[in-house]
Amino acid sequence: MKHDENGLDMELADSLTDNLLEITQELGNSSDIAIREIQIDLGDHRSIEGAIVYMAGISNLYSMIDTLLACCKNGAQQHLNPEELLGYLENVVVSSGTVEHIDTLDDLFESLLSGESILLLDGCKRALAIGTKELIGRQVEEPNVQSVVRGPREGFTEVLQWNTAMLRRKIKDRNLWMETMSIGRVTKTEVVVAYVKNIVSEEVLEEVKTRLSLIDIDAILESNYIEELIEDKQNTPFSTVFNTERPDVIAAGLLEGRVAILVDGTPFALLVPALFTQFFQSSEDYYQPANFSSLIRLLRVLSFGLALLTPSFYIAVTTFHQEMLPTTLLYNLASQREGVPFPAFVEAIMMEITFEILREASVRMPRTVGQSISIVGTLVIGQAAVEAGLVSAAMVIVVSITAMSNFVLPAFNLGITIRIIRFLLMILAATFGLFGIFVGIIALVVHLCGISSFGVPYMSPFAPFHLSDQKDTLVRFTFPNMITRPKVFRQKNLVRQKRR
Question: For a tag site, which of 7, 225, 338, 485 has the least CB within 10 Å?
Fold first, then answer.
């Protein structure tokens, strides 16, 4: 972008021809630039030349045509100079969308490339940015990743304005504040920070704003860019920023005192601070009876343990601790492994890698064949490997249980973390047996207790322990018993509802 000799943004020229030439040159005569030159009749055989500039495809063509016709119509005030005429058009003629004054080329290009139409007049060093942005995107659909049996079926889309509107529908309160900022030197991506003013902790909010303001990068194409740039730098595989594509999850988080970050161009919004227990919770837990939701949460915790420890425990027992197995089971496993040429660790690594390949293949394949490839490939390869004597039938069962347990978890990124740690525990089990597994678990717990998310301990409310916050962790109490919000976020207002 051009600047003057003092490094300041260049102002618009008073010549329409010079301004149009500058626009076309700066944008490289791109084919999607549309320029419509107009004559505005002032009466008494007088007129002023003008032009409306917009970007084809991202500006609302019909709104632009209405503005164009309104500017060209007869009846403009007589004896107006260009500056007065611009004010008259702003206040009287242009009635569609928002209107903003533009004085510099930087502001002009930012508005133009955002989908707004620019009205220029000859002899005027200012312009009008008319709100004709075309909101083009995928319609509101059911979330693909975080689906529920009972609950809202709407999910965020790639259009930021629609996402903020869905939040407004759920929280109709004047204390829901949304602040918009532009991040990315090249992409200039709009990012919205949403919070409930009378609930959120000012310390957490200021920390979020500070980290966002320190981002200096050329492009923000998805919310993961923001996530990696603002998360606590603690060298951990665990995510300290929660992401979701469900508006009801974001609304519930805001009402607990958290801060939401919405990024234009992606359906995944961010929620901070994030706690470890949050990754075991689903929005459906609050749409089902409390006893059923508590049972499902405990099942998720059990699945977490199975997905993390099942292969390593099998390796340790069959390699170092055969005396722990009942005699009949030991004979069966020994007979299955009689013709297997590899140790249990190599078996497990082979099957885990094979399953990871099948999982990735099913994701990348076209949807019409992806699911069938995953199911048929798993059955065929597993059965063929057992018949060929490469692996034992018990190992196929172990890997299958591990995979199914991984899919029970509602947070996809937690499943990725488990897959990483699982291989480390398998190495410890193959080297030191159960002793290695116990050391790995202790190290994992110590690591989790040392993590924080925007100043909030990651393992809260277990470490540090908060008795009053245990009502919505591993189990969920009924709503009449959840009087206060979780205290770990240091909110201004802790009272969620009045006592009966």
Answer: 7
